[in-house]
Write a structure and sequence with these properties.
By secondary structure, the chain is mainly α. The protein contains three helices and no strands. It has a domain of about 55 residues.
């Protein structure tokens, strides 16, 4: 069985990932928040894995992004560092 590749969707996903990576590597905002713990980093990894799983579905990229940002904001509020909840470069 051959899989049909949707080049438009593939290009959009690639562009979104490049934009996201650019924002991540541009530097972290200066805050008084302590560095993330091992447990917090694990939760962040799970959120990103959920984003990847969402991108593999037929859902719109914007829906996947919104789901990820909601999870990210909840995590940042739970860690006591709410200023990070709105520091994502795509917001």
């Amino acid at each position: 069985m051959r899989t049909r590749i949707n080049y438009g969707a593939s290009a959009a996903v690639c562009a979104a990932l490049v934009a996201f990576a650019s924002g991540v590597f541009a530097g972290s905002p200066k805050t008084d928040c302590p560095p993330a713990t091992k447990e917090e980093r694990e939760k962040m990894a799970v959120i990103h894995e959920q984003m990847a799983a969402c991108l593999r579905t037929d859902k719109a990229i914007s829906v996947c992004h919104q789901e990820m940002m909601k999870s990210h904001e909840e995590l940042m509020r739970a860690t006591g560092c709410p200023e990070h909840a709105h520091s994502h470069p795509h917001q």
